[in-house]
LSU ribosomal protein L21p (Flavivirga aquatica), 166 residues
Amino acid sequence: MNLCILIPLLVGVICAFLGYLLGKLLNSGNHNDCYAKIERLEAELEACKSSKTSLTSPLAASTSVPLIAFNADAAKAVFGKKIKENDLTIVEGIGPKIKELFHNHDVKTWKALSECSVEKCQNVLDSGGDRFKIHKPGTWSKQAQLAYEGKWEELLKWQDKLDRGK
């Protein structure tokens, strides 16, 4: 009876040892290949990161300074109330909730809104649900451009003709 237990145990140990040796033999060169591949990929990543910084640095520096200076006094003289720089609610048809939707889509300045297509504006509205379907953003980009450029009188005259931004 001792022999019945000893034979399968001995076969198991021999198989485990042979499996270990076979694994070592087959995988001996793969580790070096993997380390070389990792080093190559890390070098490519560093090169990519450095090229990305060189591309974005001039752009980031140019966008941090406003191209057209905001004149709060001129805006107040025309509108009769204090206007905050880049307040999207100055655009006829945009209220606080729609402004929040645009901010959620990284449109936070008059310049950014002036560069939006009507389709993008509509997509922002659609993201807010059915209650924003009645709004028509056809003139919002042009209004934002007038605000960005400081053309307050022209903006006010145009808004007097508009019906809630339409």
About this structure: Helices lie at 2-27, 30-64, 72-79, 96-104, 110-114, 118-127, 140-148, 152-161. The two ends are 96 Å apart (CA to CA). DSSP finds eight helices and no strands in the chain. Residues 72-161 form one domain.
